[in-house]
């Protein structure tokens, strides 16, 4: 079967970072020909080589001089400041930008897309030729909320996240590794990337603090869920960094307007695209972050009744934040774009 990417040229911006490398890997997995893909990064990375698929190699081109008119779709993951500068330039040259940063997410003219949830909103991509990829934790939360919201309207969600250090990039992963080695050797573990030591610890701060006391990551989960799912759904989040390399988890406590049983919820989730349910307490069957690294689905476990509200359920939601939380979702947006709108 011919790949939907066979007739389109792609650029991956930020190709040397964790998410950029994952984007290249997923494009290769899904059949984008080597000759149709360009790896792009900062000037200091220009000339480096990055892997493409099992045997392919791409030479990185510098972002400053890259001609976006040569590609139809650009997958951006270079950070918010770089996206803010270069994504509009790419879009003005006729390239469709799928951006993984937070910069464009709350722009009313730019669709914020999880293909399995609100793919139809891609119809508005021509407003600015830019499409935004949601926050990693928002993606896995909303993936689980969507099929339940269709069964019994959601009023409120209390979400507690347990987010791996890969969400802070290679520097975060290196810091966990280095601090772990230091502590095991009875040496000091000084924080650099994070505000507190992360090895053998958890940190109740992701991103900067805002005026009302929430962090920006917690704010993102609220406003992005409203934009993607339903503006009437209230969300309060506590986002925590944990000493795990890959894989985010969310404990979601959901209040509905009408009753929804555990069995009905499990059935709806099993039938939802991109979701896998692993939930059998008798056999200790539930999913953990260590088990989802390299996996595409969003996993749901521990579906149970929440008796603290009139109509409530609690869920445990786990996903690979580098794949479905970032790179895979961007590639899926490109697939849906090509299939339905190009």
The count of DSSP E runs of length 2 or more, i.e. the number of strands, is 14
Structural class: alpha/beta
Low-confidence stretches: none
The name of the CATH topology of the largest domain is Dihydrodipicolinate Reductase, domain 2
Order of helices and strands: EHEEEEEHEHEHEHHEEHEEEH
Measure the end-to-end span: 19 Å
Average pLDDT confidence is 96
**SS field, number of helical segments:** 8
Taken from the alpha-carbon principal axes, the silhouette is: globular
Q: Largest sheet, if any? A: 6 strands, parallel
Report the CATH architecture of the largest domain: 2-Layer Sandwich
* Radius of gyration using CA atoms only: 20 Å
Count of the separate structural domains: 2
Proportion in β-strands: 15-25%
Reading side by side through the largest sheet, how are the strands ordered?
5-2-1-6-7-8
Helix content: 25-40%
Brief digest:
The protein is of the alpha/beta class and 342 residues long. It folds into two domains: 10-134 and 326-340, NAD(P)-binding Rossmann-like Domain (Rossmann fold, 3-Layer(aba) Sandwich), CATH 3.40.50.720; 137-321, Dihydrodipicolinate Reductase, domain 2, CATH 3.30.360.10. It contains eight helices and 14 strands.
Explain this structure to me?
It is a single chain. The protein is α/β, with parallel strands linked by helices and about 350 residues long. It folds into two domains: about 140 residues, Rossmann fold, CATH 3.40.50.720; about 180 residues, Dihydrodipicolinate Reductase, domain 2 (2-Layer Sandwich). Helices cover about 30% and strands about 20% of the residues. It contains eight helices and 14 strands. The strands form three sheets. It has a six-stranded parallel beta sheet, with helices on both faces. It has a six-stranded mixed beta sheet with strand order 10-9-11-14-13-12. Helix 1 packs across helix 8, helix 4 runs parallel beside helix 6 and helix 4 crosses helix 8. About 45% of the residues are buried. The model has no long low-confidence stretch (mean pLDDT about 95).
């Amino acid at each position: 079967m011919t790949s939907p990417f066979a007739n389109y040229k792609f650029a991956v911006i930020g190709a040397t970072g964790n998410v950029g490398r994952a984007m290249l890997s997923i494009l290769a997995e899904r059949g984008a020909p080597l000759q149709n893909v360009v790896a792009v990064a900062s000037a200091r990375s220009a000339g480096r080589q990055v892997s493409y698929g099992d045997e392919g190699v791409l030479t990185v081109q510098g972002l400053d001089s890259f001609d976006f008119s040569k590609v139809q779709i650009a997958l951006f993951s270079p950070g918010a400041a770089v996206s803010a500068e270069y994504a509009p330039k790419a879009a003005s040259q006729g390239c469709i930008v799928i951006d993984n940063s937070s910069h464009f997410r709350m722009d009313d003219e730019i669709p914020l897309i999880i293909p399995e949830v609100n793919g139809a909103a891609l119809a508005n991509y021509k407003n600015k030729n830019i499409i935004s990829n949601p926050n990693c934790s928002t993606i896995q939360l909303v993936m689980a909320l969507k099929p339940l919201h269709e069964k019994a309207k959601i009023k409120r969600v209390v979400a507690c996240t347990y987010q791996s250090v890969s969400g802070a990039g290679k520097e975060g992963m290196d810091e966990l590794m280095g601090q772990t080695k230091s502590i095991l050797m009875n040496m000091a573990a000084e924080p650099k990337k994070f505000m507190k030591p992360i090895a053998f610890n958890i940190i109740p701060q992701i991103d900067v603090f805002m005026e009302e006391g929430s962090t920006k990551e917690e704010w993102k989960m609220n406003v992005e869920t409203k934009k993607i799912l339903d503006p009437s759904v209230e969300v309060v989040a506590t986002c925590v960094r944990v000493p795990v390399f890959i894989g985010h988890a969310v404990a979601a406590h959901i209040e509905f307007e009408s009753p929804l049983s555990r069995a009905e919820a499990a059935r709806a989730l099993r039938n939802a695209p991109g979701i896998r349910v692993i939930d059998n307490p008798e056999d200790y069957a539930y999913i953990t972050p260590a088990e989802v690294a390299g996996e595409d689905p969003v996993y749901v476990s521990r579906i149970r009744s929440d008796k603290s509200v009139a109509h409530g359920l609690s869920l445990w939601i786990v996903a690979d934040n580098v794949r479905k939380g970032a790179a895979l979702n961007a590639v899926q947006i490109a697939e849906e774009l090509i299939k339905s709108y190009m």
